[in-house]
Amino acid sequence: MPALRLGSIAPDFEAQTTKGAIKFHDWIGDSWAVLFSHPADFTPVCTTELAEVARRAPDFAKRNVKVIGLSANPLNDHDKWVQDINEYGCKYAPTNVQFPIIADPDRKISELYDMLDAQDPTNRDAKGIPFTVRTVFVIDPKKIIRLTLSYPASTGRNFDEILRVVDSLQIGDKYRVTTPVNWKKGDDVIVHPSVSNEEAKTLFPDFTIHKPYLRTTPLTVE
């Protein structure tokens, strides 16, 4: 199986989820998608992450992003776990998990997306099968993988950063720009190298040339 890289087509699959059966590409439709995996149900770090994603549901929705979790447990475990997550909530407010969580007890989807922890001998279930690491895939409406992140099992993800990258990708696709270090929405952006100075005068009237290869411009977006 070829390794997945940025620019690869996200593999399609069928799965059972807490929101019913899905075919992944059909489920994505014309949206962006964030697929994020978990080592197991009823684990503390995962519980905080899913609660946070539920809390941030409006932030994903306004960016036309669907979110979907995956954990290597059966569906009935997921349903019980969602109750725990909603009861726990998060440090900000109670939560209500509405996004689907994929049941992947046989690790078929985890293996398809190369999300299994083959290195850590302690990250195994009772049968000795590797659990998933905390992997994130950002997938665009063309089903192309635009971002991959992998966290160790001990470290919770930063969903502010994931949303920041989605903003960068969407702005870049629309406006022919890239984003500099530590960029956040509202900051100046970089004029893409493929845009000539003559084009930039039309596209970005207020752009600044710092170096022939480094040009920045304000960019106001909603």
TrEMBL record:
The organism of origin for this protein: Neolentinus lepideus HHB14362 ss-1
Matches recorded under InterPro entries: AhpC/TSA (IPR000866), Peroxiredoxin_AhpC-typ (IPR024706), Peroxiredoxin_C (IPR019479), PRX_1cys (IPR045020), Thioredoxin-like_sf (IPR036249), Thioredoxin_domain (IPR013766)
Domain of life: Eukaryota
Keyword Oxidoreductase included in the entry's annotation: yes
Active-site residues, record numbering mapped to chain: 46 (cysteine sulfenic acid (-soh) intermediate)
Key words of the record: Antioxidant, Oxidoreductase, Peroxidase, Redox-active center
GO CC aspect terms: cytosol; mitochondrion
Database matches in Pfam families: 1-cysPrx_C, AhpC-TSA
Protein name stated in the entry: Cysteine peroxiredoxin
Biological process annotations from GO: cell redox homeostasis
Entry's family note: Belongs to the peroxiredoxin family. Prx6 subfamily.
GO molecular function: peroxiredoxin activity
Function description: Thiol-specific peroxidase that catalyzes the reduction of hydrogen peroxide and organic hydroperoxides to water and alcohols, respectively.
Occurrences of domain Thioredoxin (ranges): 4-171
Coiled-coil parts of chain: none
